[in-house]
Model the fold of this input.
Amino acid sequence: MEVQVTRSSMPEYKEYIDEIKELWDTRWLTNNGVKHKQLERELVEYMGVKNVKLFTNGHLALEYIIQAFDLKGEIITVPFTFASTTHAIVRNGIRPVFCDVNEDNYTIDVEQIESLISDKTTAIMPVHVYGNICNVEVIDKIAKKYNLKVIYDAAHAFGIKFKGQGIGSYGDASMFSFHATKVFHTIEGGAIACSDKKVLNKLEALKNFGIESEDSISFAGGNAKMNEFQAAMGICNLRHIEKEISKREIIFKRYIENLREVQGIKVLNNQKDVKSNYAYFPIILDEQLVTRDNLINELESRGIKARKYFYPLTSNFKCYESLFKDNKTPIAEKISNNVLCLPMYSDLSLEMVDKICSIIKR
Ligand SMILES: *Cc1c(COP(=O)(O)O)cnc(C)c1O
Done:
């Protein structure tokens, strides 16, 4: 049997079909339809945030929120992330300034942020990774002190709570991805959580060609609207999200039980005051003891797919080669070179988890 590193969760076929049935009567398929409105309302409630704007995908949401805040100059961010974060900054004509990550949870090293601030810095864009969160309280203090915006790439962080509060309520805005492989999905999709009404109005116009009202086009916007079929998938998936996350928690704990004591492997730490979503199960290999490619091949020969995620660092991408040659983020480099994400999805069996772990141990 083949085991992929992830597997999209889906509602029962009939549940989705029932959800989309009325679209054949209304013939209202996109542009803020009933499903779209319903999903936005339900997400505000579930995510514990003030407002949610839906998008075609998470990446466009990130590009557009940068525009809605009218950011320029430099943004401090991390290279240990998916391509999207860095590309969104660069595609807006802004220079990413890379901060290293910390060894505890692989998010931005808050100790180093201040030393990277220049008179061109307009924002900080940290990334919550794997189901762990950034040090939001310290980031908030730094941002206030230097009058910077904070936009989180929260693509991995759907459903996470910190001190009882929705993770999307921290910072000036957060981008969530609803891609098929994420904990919660709308096939493709994404959202911005933000509490600034003015920014939200601009964001709403930006994702629909800049149209503010029928006769008034105030921004050179693009098109990033979520359609009704995507929203209907979200409505269905949201009904099952708690069960989804608790199944992941059981799998996560089984992995930990199996691997905690294994020499040469570091597993994720639980963070204090955080209700996680158990989005991924990364292990960090001790390069003195295990070669990552050997382990990948060993697993693959038994039909199990593990993924180097995130690798390479975005600062090492071919398209940026000449730009960030002097970039110094040694911890991110080390983690990226030795991280391996093991299969993680809600209907992965515990027997399979045990089997994967026994191959690793051997
Ligand atoms: C998935 C992901 C994105 C992009 O989201 P899409 O919905 O696929 O566009 C951005 N950042 C991170 C960290 C991601 O994992």
In short: The longest strand covers residues 121-125. The first helix runs from residue 13 to 20. Residues 57-59, 81-82, 84-85, 127, 153, 155-156, 177, 179, 190 surround pyridoxal-5'-phosphate (CB under 6 Å). The radius of gyration is 21 Å.
